[in-house]
Design brief:
Helices cover 31% and strands 11% of the residues. By secondary structure, it is of the alpha+beta class. It has one domain (2-115, 134-174). The strands form two sheets. It has a two-stranded parallel ribbon. α1 runs antiparallel to α2 and α2 runs antiparallel to α3 (90-104). The protein is globular and about 45 Å long. The mean pLDDT is 87.
């Protein structure tokens, strides 16, 4: 199976392109990849800013949040290897992480970057703008896929916390994570 991934859009500030949320001991925590503010905002040209120790902070946050998660030890080194490879562009970092998630979820899918930005004839297959941190996220509920899974700090937080990174699901459920995305897979 092939899926197109938008490679020709303009970078959108305050979007999930450079952030995600995890559940730590103090609650929901945002992890953010700083970017270099420059003249070009084409998504493939946005540079990652390594002038701050964000990689180390991200690694420490993941360790604190997931060290007791069932599958964290199994996946930790692979995620850290991607972060430590220090891709120059945000596009490359995101593509590596997305492809890693697809492999770990055992989804047989080849991502094909688009060659031009074009709006489709129908919005039915266009998910480019479906999820944004500034808008309510009801996609899983709308698709009937919203169901809780075990989370390390669930009891401390008073129950299941939704809206987190796919890493939360993978670290807690491991190979079974696909069952929360594709029922009966």
């Amino acid at each position: 199976m092939q899926a197109s991934i938008e490679a020709c859009e303009r970078y959108q500030k305050q979007s999930y392109r450079n952030r995600c949320y995890i559940l730590g001991p103090q609650g929901v925590q945002m992890l953010q990849v700083p970017v270099v503010h420059g003249s070009s905002w084409d998504i493939k040209d946005v540079l990652v800013d390594y002038s701050t120790p964000w990689v180390l902070r991200t690694q420490r946050a993941l360790d604190t949040a997931y060290e007791s998660a069932a599958f964290y030890e199994y996946f930790r080194d692979e995620v850290f290897e991607i972060l430590e490879s220090r891709p120059e562009h945000l596009w490359d970092l995101n593509l590596q992480l997305i492809r890693w998630c697809i492999r770990r979820l055992r989804i047989d899918c080849e991502l094909v970057p688009t060659t031009e930005f074009a709006l489709p004839d129908t919005k039915a297959d266009d998910f480019r703008f479906a999820i944004h941190p500034k808008r309510p996220d009801t996609i899983l509920q709308d698709l009937g896929l919203s169901k809780p899974y075990y989370q390390v700090f669930r009891d401390r937080m008073g129950g299941f916390t939704s809206g987190l990174s796919i890493l939360d699901l993978l670290f807690n459920e491991g190979p079974d994570a696909i069952d929360w995305i594709v029922p009966g897979a």
